[in-house]
Predict the structure.
Amino acid sequence: MAATARLVSVLQESQKAPRRNSSVAVLAIGTANPANCILQEDYADWYFRVTKSDHLTALKNKMKRICDKSGVKKRYFHYTEETLAGRPELFLDPTLPSLSARLAISAAAIPELAAAAAAKAIAEWGRPAGDITHLVVSTNSSAQAPGADVRLAELLGLRPTVQRTLLYLHGCFGGCSALRLAMDIAGSNRGARVLVAVAEATTVLSFRPPVDAHPDALVAAALFGDGAGAVIIGDDDSTGTNVERPIFYMVSASQGTLPGTEDTLSMRLQEDGYDIGISVKAPAIVRDNIEGCVANMLAPLGLAGAGWNGLFWAVHPGGRAILDSCQDAFALGPGKLAASRHVLSEYGNMYGATIIFVMDEIRRRRQQDGERKELDGRLGVMLGLGPGISVETMVLRSASGMEKK
Ligand SMILES: CCCCCCCCCCCCCCCCCC(=O)SCCNC(=O)CCNC(=O)[C@H](O)C(C)(C)COP(=O)(O)OP(=O)(O)OC[C@H]1O[C@@H](n2cnc3c(N)ncnc32)[C@H](O)[C@@H]1OP(=O)(O)O
Protein backbone atom coordinates (compact mmCIF):
# COMPACT_ATOMS: atom_id res chain seq x y z
CA MET A 1 0.00 0.00 0.00
CA ALA A 2 1.37 3.46 -0.84
CA ALA A 3 2.61 5.41 2.17
CA THR A 4 -0.10 8.08 1.94
CA ALA A 5 -2.91 5.56 1.54
CA ARG A 6 -1.56 3.61 4.49
CA LEU A 7 -1.53 6.75 6.60
CA VAL A 8 -5.10 7.62 5.59
CA SER A 9 -6.19 4.21 6.75
CA VAL A 10 -4.35 4.53 10.10
CA LEU A 11 -5.93 7.94 10.63
CA GLN A 12 -9.41 6.65 9.79
CA GLU A 13 -8.88 3.69 12.12
CA SER A 14 -7.90 5.94 14.98
CA GLN A 15 -11.04 8.05 14.44
CA LYS A 16 -13.74 5.45 13.87
CA ALA A 17 -12.53 2.53 15.99
CA PRO A 18 -11.17 4.20 19.10
CA ARG A 19 -8.56 2.30 21.02
CA ARG A 20 -8.56 2.23 24.77
CA ASN A 21 -7.33 5.77 25.21
CA SER A 22 -8.33 7.37 21.94
CA SER A 23 -10.79 9.80 23.50
CA VAL A 24 -8.27 10.92 26.09
CA ALA A 25 -7.22 14.40 25.11
CA VAL A 26 -4.94 17.26 25.99
CA LEU A 27 -7.42 19.94 27.03
CA ALA A 28 -5.09 22.84 27.89
CA ILE A 29 -1.41 23.76 27.89
CA GLY A 30 0.55 26.35 29.90
CA THR A 31 4.25 27.19 30.13
CA ALA A 32 6.43 29.43 32.29
CA ASN A 33 10.07 30.42 32.76
CA PRO A 34 12.07 32.26 35.41
CA ALA A 35 12.67 35.94 34.66
CA ASN A 36 16.45 35.87 34.19
CA CYS A 37 17.16 35.56 30.46
CA ILE A 38 20.67 35.27 29.01
CA LEU A 39 21.39 35.52 25.30
CA GLN A 40 23.45 32.63 24.02
CA GLU A 41 25.84 34.98 22.23
CA ASP A 42 26.71 36.46 25.64
CA TYR A 43 26.70 33.21 27.59
CA ALA A 44 30.36 32.13 27.34
CA ASP A 45 31.53 35.58 28.45
CA TRP A 46 28.95 35.65 31.24
CA TYR A 47 29.72 32.12 32.45
CA PHE A 48 33.49 32.49 32.51
CA ARG A 49 33.31 35.95 34.12
CA VAL A 50 30.87 34.92 36.86
CA THR A 51 32.83 31.75 37.68
CA LYS A 52 36.11 33.74 37.63
CA SER A 53 37.46 31.44 34.93
CA ASP A 54 38.42 33.99 32.26
CA HIS A 55 42.02 32.79 32.47
CA LEU A 56 40.96 29.41 30.97
CA THR A 57 41.08 30.85 27.48
CA ALA A 58 41.18 27.56 25.56
CA LEU A 59 38.17 26.25 27.45
CA LYS A 60 36.31 29.52 26.98
CA ASN A 61 36.96 29.40 23.24
CA LYS A 62 35.65 25.83 23.17
CA MET A 63 32.56 27.01 25.04
CA LYS A 64 32.06 29.71 22.42
CA ARG A 65 32.32 27.11 19.65
CA ILE A 66 29.76 24.90 21.39
CA CYS A 67 27.39 27.84 21.96
CA ASP A 68 27.73 28.86 18.29
CA LYS A 69 26.75 25.34 17.18
CA SER A 70 24.03 24.85 19.80
CA GLY A 71 21.03 26.16 17.88
CA VAL A 72 20.13 28.11 21.03
CA LYS A 73 19.49 31.86 20.98
CA LYS A 74 18.50 32.44 24.59
CA ARG A 75 17.74 30.63 27.85
CA TYR A 76 16.08 31.38 31.19
CA PHE A 77 17.63 30.64 34.58
CA HIS A 78 16.46 30.58 38.15
CA TYR A 79 19.87 31.81 39.30
CA THR A 80 20.91 35.40 38.82
CA GLU A 81 24.23 36.99 39.65
CA GLU A 82 22.47 38.53 42.65
CA THR A 83 21.20 35.19 44.01
CA LEU A 84 24.65 33.64 43.50
CA ALA A 85 26.46 36.50 45.29
CA GLY A 86 28.11 35.39 48.52
CA ARG A 87 27.49 31.68 47.77
CA PRO A 88 30.88 30.37 46.55
CA GLU A 89 29.75 26.77 47.02
CA LEU A 90 27.21 27.25 44.22
CA PHE A 91 29.42 28.53 41.45
CA LEU A 92 33.05 29.00 42.44
CA ASP A 93 34.41 26.15 44.51
CA PRO A 94 33.17 22.61 43.71
CA THR A 95 35.12 21.21 46.67
CA LEU A 96 32.70 22.91 49.07
CA PRO A 97 29.60 20.85 49.95
CA SER A 98 26.62 22.38 48.20
CA LEU A 99 23.93 19.75 47.77
CA SER A 100 21.79 20.82 50.74
CA ALA A 101 21.95 24.47 49.70
CA ARG A 102 21.06 23.62 46.10
CA LEU A 103 18.16 21.39 47.14
CA ALA A 104 16.81 24.07 49.48
CA ILE A 105 16.81 26.61 46.64
CA SER A 106 15.10 24.25 44.19
CA ALA A 107 12.56 23.06 46.81
CA ALA A 108 11.24 26.61 46.97
CA ALA A 109 11.60 27.34 43.25
CA ILE A 110 10.01 24.25 41.69
CA PRO A 111 6.44 24.56 43.07
CA GLU A 112 6.37 28.26 42.19
CA LEU A 113 7.53 27.63 38.63
CA ALA A 114 5.12 24.71 38.24
CA ALA A 115 2.28 26.84 39.61
CA ALA A 116 2.98 29.61 37.09
CA ALA A 117 2.64 27.15 34.19
CA ALA A 118 -0.31 25.29 35.74
CA ALA A 119 -2.24 28.51 36.42
CA LYS A 120 -2.05 29.32 32.69
CA ALA A 121 -3.25 25.83 31.76
CA ILE A 122 -6.14 26.02 34.23
CA ALA A 123 -7.16 29.46 32.94
CA GLU A 124 -7.19 28.13 29.37
CA TRP A 125 -9.10 25.01 30.42
CA GLY A 126 -11.92 27.20 31.78
CA ARG A 127 -12.97 25.04 34.71
CA PRO A 128 -12.20 25.57 38.42
CA ALA A 129 -8.93 24.21 39.82
CA GLY A 130 -11.03 22.17 42.27
CA ASP A 131 -12.24 20.01 39.35
CA ILE A 132 -8.73 18.54 38.96
CA THR A 133 -8.91 14.95 40.23
CA HIS A 134 -5.30 13.81 39.73
CA LEU A 135 -1.95 15.57 39.81
CA VAL A 136 1.22 14.20 38.18
CA VAL A 137 4.37 16.20 38.87
CA SER A 138 7.73 15.46 37.30
CA THR A 139 11.04 17.11 38.12
CA ASN A 140 14.76 16.43 38.07
CA SER A 141 15.40 19.33 40.39
CA SER A 142 14.29 18.11 43.77
CA ALA A 143 14.70 15.22 46.19
CA GLN A 144 12.44 15.44 49.20
CA ALA A 145 9.15 14.33 50.70
CA PRO A 146 6.70 15.88 51.07
CA GLY A 147 7.57 17.07 47.62
CA ALA A 148 6.69 19.72 45.08
CA ASP A 149 3.32 18.05 44.39
CA VAL A 150 2.01 18.86 47.88
CA ARG A 151 3.05 22.51 47.73
CA LEU A 152 1.77 22.86 44.16
CA ALA A 153 -1.63 21.50 45.15
CA GLU A 154 -1.74 24.10 47.93
CA LEU A 155 -0.67 26.96 45.68
CA LEU A 156 -3.32 26.11 43.08
CA GLY A 157 -6.09 25.42 45.60
CA LEU A 158 -6.62 21.85 44.39
CA ARG A 159 -9.06 19.67 46.32
CA PRO A 160 -7.53 17.99 49.39
CA THR A 161 -8.32 14.57 47.93
CA VAL A 162 -6.52 15.18 44.66
CA GLN A 163 -4.55 12.00 43.84
CA ARG A 164 -0.89 12.92 43.58
CA THR A 165 2.00 11.16 41.85
CA LEU A 166 5.53 12.58 41.91
CA LEU A 167 8.19 11.47 39.43
CA TYR A 168 11.83 12.22 40.21
CA LEU A 169 14.93 11.92 38.06
CA HIS A 170 13.46 10.76 34.77
CA GLY A 171 15.91 12.98 32.91
CA CYS A 172 14.86 14.63 29.67
CA PHE A 173 12.03 12.15 29.05
CA GLY A 174 10.31 13.02 32.38
CA GLY A 175 7.67 15.07 30.57
CA CYS A 176 6.80 12.19 28.26
CA SER A 177 6.63 9.75 31.19
CA ALA A 178 4.28 12.08 33.06
CA LEU A 179 2.05 12.46 29.99
CA ARG A 180 1.99 8.68 29.47
CA LEU A 181 0.96 8.15 33.09
CA ALA A 182 -1.70 10.86 32.86
CA MET A 183 -3.09 9.29 29.69
CA ASP A 184 -3.46 5.97 31.49
CA ILE A 185 -5.08 7.58 34.53
CA ALA A 186 -7.55 9.52 32.39
CA GLY A 187 -8.27 6.45 30.27
CA SER A 188 -9.13 4.28 33.25
CA ASN A 189 -10.97 6.74 35.52
CA ARG A 190 -14.10 8.10 33.91
CA GLY A 191 -14.43 11.84 34.42
CA ALA A 192 -10.85 12.20 35.68
CA ARG A 193 -9.10 15.48 34.98
CA VAL A 194 -5.35 15.08 35.34
CA LEU A 195 -3.04 18.04 35.77
CA VAL A 196 0.50 17.26 34.62
CA ALA A 197 3.13 19.74 35.80
CA VAL A 198 6.76 19.35 34.77
CA ALA A 199 9.06 21.88 36.38
CA GLU A 200 12.80 22.07 35.96
CA ALA A 201 15.37 24.34 37.56
CA THR A 202 18.09 21.78 37.07
CA THR A 203 20.70 24.44 36.52
CA VAL A 204 20.32 25.11 40.27
CA LEU A 205 21.68 21.61 40.89
CA SER A 206 24.28 21.69 38.12
CA PHE A 207 25.88 25.13 37.92
CA ARG A 208 29.61 24.97 38.66
CA PRO A 209 32.83 26.38 37.22
CA PRO A 210 34.26 24.94 34.01
CA VAL A 211 37.06 22.38 34.26
CA ASP A 212 39.28 20.92 31.54
CA ALA A 213 38.64 17.39 32.70
CA HIS A 214 34.90 17.56 32.08
CA PRO A 215 34.19 18.96 28.61
CA ASP A 216 30.73 17.39 28.46
CA ALA A 217 29.76 19.63 31.38
CA LEU A 218 30.46 22.51 28.99
CA VAL A 219 27.95 21.01 26.57
CA ALA A 220 25.37 20.78 29.37
CA ALA A 221 26.12 24.35 30.46
CA ALA A 222 25.61 25.49 26.86
CA LEU A 223 22.31 23.70 26.32
CA PHE A 224 20.21 23.60 29.47
CA GLY A 225 17.77 26.17 30.83
CA ASP A 226 14.94 26.32 33.35
CA GLY A 227 11.21 26.23 32.72
CA ALA A 228 7.91 24.52 33.45
CA GLY A 229 5.11 23.11 31.35
CA ALA A 230 1.63 22.07 32.44
CA VAL A 231 -1.07 20.14 30.64
CA ILE A 232 -4.61 19.14 31.57
CA ILE A 233 -5.73 15.77 30.31
CA GLY A 234 -9.15 14.17 30.35
CA ASP A 235 -11.48 11.81 28.55
CA ASP A 236 -13.31 13.84 25.94
CA ASP A 237 -16.31 11.45 26.09
CA SER A 238 -16.91 12.13 29.75
CA THR A 239 -17.10 15.91 29.63
CA GLY A 240 -20.34 17.28 30.92
CA THR A 241 -19.46 20.83 30.00
CA ASN A 242 -18.91 22.56 26.73
CA VAL A 243 -16.02 24.68 27.93
CA GLU A 244 -13.40 22.02 27.27
CA ARG A 245 -11.75 22.02 23.86
CA PRO A 246 -9.51 19.09 22.98
CA ILE A 247 -6.19 20.05 21.41
CA PHE A 248 -4.57 16.67 20.80
CA TYR A 249 -5.98 13.19 21.35
CA MET A 250 -3.52 10.80 22.96
CA VAL A 251 -3.79 7.64 20.87
CA SER A 252 -1.10 5.43 22.33
CA ALA A 253 2.14 5.57 24.32
CA SER A 254 5.17 3.32 24.58
CA GLN A 255 8.64 3.25 26.06
CA GLY A 256 11.80 1.57 24.85
CA THR A 257 15.53 1.57 25.52
CA LEU A 258 18.42 1.62 23.09
CA PRO A 259 20.46 -1.44 24.13
CA GLY A 260 24.03 -0.97 25.34
CA THR A 261 23.72 2.79 25.88
CA GLU A 262 23.62 2.98 29.70
CA ASP A 263 26.71 5.20 29.82
CA THR A 264 25.81 7.50 26.93
CA LEU A 265 23.70 10.01 28.88
CA SER A 266 23.74 10.11 32.67
CA MET A 267 22.96 12.20 35.74
CA ARG A 268 24.12 11.32 39.24
CA LEU A 269 23.24 13.40 42.26
CA GLN A 270 26.32 13.87 44.42
CA GLU A 271 27.74 16.24 47.06
CA ASP A 272 28.24 19.13 44.64
CA GLY A 273 25.05 18.60 42.63
CA TYR A 274 24.52 16.65 39.43
CA ASP A 275 27.46 14.88 37.86
CA ILE A 276 26.55 14.89 34.20
CA GLY A 277 27.63 12.54 31.44
CA ILE A 278 26.94 13.38 27.79
CA SER A 279 28.89 11.17 25.43
CA VAL A 280 30.17 12.75 22.26
CA LYS A 281 28.74 9.65 20.55
CA ALA A 282 25.13 10.41 21.58
CA PRO A 283 24.06 12.02 18.29
CA ALA A 284 25.52 9.17 16.20
CA ILE A 285 23.94 6.51 18.43
CA VAL A 286 20.57 8.22 18.05
CA ARG A 287 21.02 8.54 14.28
CA ASP A 288 21.86 4.85 13.90
CA ASN A 289 19.20 3.39 16.18
CA ILE A 290 16.20 5.63 16.64
CA GLU A 291 14.26 4.77 13.49
CA GLY A 292 14.36 1.01 14.15
CA CYS A 293 13.42 1.51 17.78
CA VAL A 294 10.46 3.79 17.01
CA ALA A 295 9.33 1.57 14.12
CA ASN A 296 9.17 -1.39 16.54
CA MET A 297 7.27 0.65 19.10
CA LEU A 298 4.71 1.86 16.58
CA ALA A 299 4.36 -1.38 14.64
CA PRO A 300 1.33 -2.56 16.67
CA LEU A 301 -0.50 0.57 15.50
CA GLY A 302 0.35 -0.11 11.87
CA LEU A 303 2.23 3.16 11.78
CA ALA A 304 5.74 1.92 11.13
CA GLY A 305 6.68 2.47 7.54
CA ALA A 306 3.45 4.35 6.86
CA GLY A 307 5.51 7.33 5.75
CA TRP A 308 7.22 9.29 8.50
CA ASN A 309 6.81 12.53 6.57
CA GLY A 310 3.03 12.23 6.66
CA LEU A 311 3.08 12.65 10.43
CA PHE A 312 3.70 15.74 12.52
CA TRP A 313 6.65 15.49 14.89
CA ALA A 314 7.10 16.73 18.44
CA VAL A 315 10.68 15.71 19.23
CA HIS A 316 12.42 16.58 22.50
CA PRO A 317 15.25 18.92 21.45
CA GLY A 318 18.02 17.34 23.54
CA GLY A 319 20.55 19.30 21.49
CA ARG A 320 20.84 20.55 17.91
CA ALA A 321 22.80 17.45 16.90
CA ILE A 322 20.12 15.18 18.39
CA LEU A 323 17.47 16.90 16.26
CA ASP A 324 19.73 16.58 13.20
CA SER A 325 20.10 12.87 13.96
CA CYS A 326 16.33 12.37 14.18
CA GLN A 327 15.78 14.36 11.00
CA ASP A 328 18.29 12.13 9.16
CA ALA A 329 17.15 8.86 10.71
CA PHE A 330 13.49 9.34 9.73
CA ALA A 331 14.44 11.13 6.49
CA LEU A 332 12.19 14.00 7.54
CA GLY A 333 11.68 16.87 5.14
CA PRO A 334 12.81 20.40 5.96
CA GLY A 335 10.54 22.06 8.49
CA LYS A 336 9.24 18.83 10.05
CA LEU A 337 11.15 19.57 13.26
CA ALA A 338 10.58 23.34 13.11
CA ALA A 339 8.65 23.45 16.39
CA SER A 340 11.38 21.52 18.24
CA ARG A 341 14.11 23.70 16.74
CA HIS A 342 12.17 26.84 17.64
CA VAL A 343 11.82 25.75 21.28
CA LEU A 344 15.52 24.84 21.47
CA SER A 345 16.36 28.24 20.07
CA GLU A 346 14.12 30.24 22.39
CA TYR A 347 14.58 28.31 25.65
CA GLY A 348 17.35 25.68 25.36
CA ASN A 349 16.83 22.18 26.72
CA MET A 350 14.61 22.39 29.82
CA TYR A 351 14.66 18.66 30.48
CA GLY A 352 11.20 17.12 30.81
CA ALA A 353 9.39 20.45 30.52
CA THR A 354 10.68 20.98 26.98
CA ILE A 355 8.27 18.55 25.30
CA ILE A 356 5.31 20.54 26.62
CA PHE A 357 6.75 23.71 25.08
CA VAL A 358 7.09 21.79 21.79
CA MET A 359 3.47 20.63 21.99
CA ASP A 360 2.39 24.20 22.69
CA GLU A 361 4.45 25.46 19.74
CA ILE A 362 2.88 22.92 17.38
CA ARG A 363 -0.56 23.97 18.57
CA ARG A 364 0.37 27.64 18.05
CA ARG A 365 1.65 26.99 14.52
CA ARG A 366 -1.51 25.08 13.63
CA GLN A 367 -3.74 27.84 14.92
CA GLN A 368 -1.79 30.33 12.82
CA ASP A 369 -1.35 28.36 9.63
CA GLY A 370 -4.07 25.73 9.69
CA GLU A 371 -3.38 22.39 8.14
CA ARG A 372 -1.49 23.09 4.95
CA LYS A 373 -1.89 19.52 3.75
CA GLU A 374 -4.62 17.19 4.86
CA LEU A 375 -2.22 14.70 6.37
CA ASP A 376 0.57 16.99 7.34
CA GLY A 377 -0.17 16.38 10.87
CA ARG A 378 -3.55 14.88 11.79
CA LEU A 379 -1.45 12.10 13.31
CA GLY A 380 1.85 12.85 14.96
CA VAL A 381 4.57 11.35 17.07
CA MET A 382 5.84 12.85 20.28
CA LEU A 383 9.34 11.59 20.95
CA GLY A 384 11.30 11.93 24.18
CA LEU A 385 14.91 10.86 24.71
CA GLY A 386 16.97 10.76 27.86
CA PRO A 387 19.26 8.68 30.05
CA GLY A 388 18.92 4.99 29.32
CA ILE A 389 19.03 5.85 26.45
CA SER A 390 15.30 5.78 27.01
CA VAL A 391 12.90 6.46 24.18
CA GLU A 392 9.32 7.52 24.90
CA THR A 393 6.78 7.82 22.13
CA MET A 394 3.22 9.00 22.16
CA VAL A 395 1.03 9.00 19.09
CA LEU A 396 -1.09 12.12 19.00
CA ARG A 397 -4.02 13.03 16.79
CA SER A 398 -4.82 16.71 16.42
CA ALA A 399 -8.40 17.55 17.30
CA SER A 400 -10.39 18.61 14.27
CA GLY A 401 -11.32 22.26 14.44
CA MET A 402 -8.42 22.97 16.78
CA GLU A 403 -6.82 25.06 14.07
CA LYS A 404 -9.84 27.38 13.86
CA LYS A 405 -9.91 28.17 17.56
C1 LIG B 1 22.35 31.57 35.58
C2 LIG B 1 22.82 30.14 35.82
C3 LIG B 1 23.20 29.34 34.54
C4 LIG B 1 23.31 27.89 34.80
C5 LIG B 1 23.75 27.05 33.61
C6 LIG B 1 24.17 25.71 34.10
C7 LIG B 1 23.90 24.71 33.12
C8 LIG B 1 24.12 23.32 33.63
C9 LIG B 1 23.00 22.45 33.18
C10 LIG B 1 23.24 21.03 33.42
C11 LIG B 1 22.11 20.25 33.05
C12 LIG B 1 22.34 18.80 33.26
C13 LIG B 1 22.38 17.99 31.97
C14 LIG B 1 22.16 16.56 32.23
C15 LIG B 1 22.32 15.74 31.02
C16 LIG B 1 21.46 14.58 31.07
C17 LIG B 1 21.66 13.77 29.90
C18 LIG B 1 20.90 14.28 28.70
O1 LIG B 1 19.84 13.87 28.42
S1 LIG B 1 21.68 15.40 27.65
C19 LIG B 1 20.64 15.60 26.25
C20 LIG B 1 21.24 15.13 25.00
N1 LIG B 1 22.03 16.16 24.38
C21 LIG B 1 23.16 15.84 23.75
O2 LIG B 1 23.54 14.68 23.69
C22 LIG B 1 23.96 16.95 23.10
C23 LIG B 1 24.00 16.74 21.62
N2 LIG B 1 25.11 17.47 21.01
C24 LIG B 1 24.93 18.59 20.31
O3 LIG B 1 23.83 19.12 20.18
C25 LIG B 1 26.13 19.12 19.56
O4 LIG B 1 27.14 18.14 19.56
C26 LIG B 1 26.72 20.43 20.15
C27 LIG B 1 25.68 21.54 20.04
C28 LIG B 1 27.11 20.25 21.60
C29 LIG B 1 27.95 20.84 19.33
O5 LIG B 1 27.59 20.91 17.96
P1 LIG B 1 28.40 20.07 16.86
O6 LIG B 1 27.72 20.23 15.57
O7 LIG B 1 28.61 18.69 17.36
O8 LIG B 1 29.75 20.91 16.81
P2 LIG B 1 31.26 20.41 16.69
O9 LIG B 1 31.38 19.03 16.15
O10 LIG B 1 32.00 21.50 15.98
O11 LIG B 1 31.71 20.39 18.20
C30 LIG B 1 31.98 21.58 18.89
C31 LIG B 1 32.79 21.20 20.10
O12 LIG B 1 31.92 20.52 21.01
C32 LIG B 1 32.60 19.35 21.47
N3 LIG B 1 31.60 18.39 21.91
C33 LIG B 1 30.47 18.02 21.29
N4 LIG B 1 29.82 17.11 22.02
C34 LIG B 1 30.56 16.92 23.13
C35 LIG B 1 30.38 16.12 24.27
N5 LIG B 1 29.30 15.33 24.42
N6 LIG B 1 31.31 16.18 25.23
C36 LIG B 1 32.40 16.97 25.11
N7 LIG B 1 32.59 17.78 24.04
C37 LIG B 1 31.68 17.74 23.06
C38 LIG B 1 33.39 18.89 20.26
O13 LIG B 1 34.41 17.99 20.64
C39 LIG B 1 33.92 20.22 19.75
O14 LIG B 1 35.05 20.60 20.50
P3 LIG B 1 36.27 21.38 19.75
O15 LIG B 1 36.82 20.40 18.72
O16 LIG B 1 35.67 22.60 19.10
O17 LIG B 1 37.23 21.70 20.84
In short: The first strand starts at residue 24 and ends at 32.
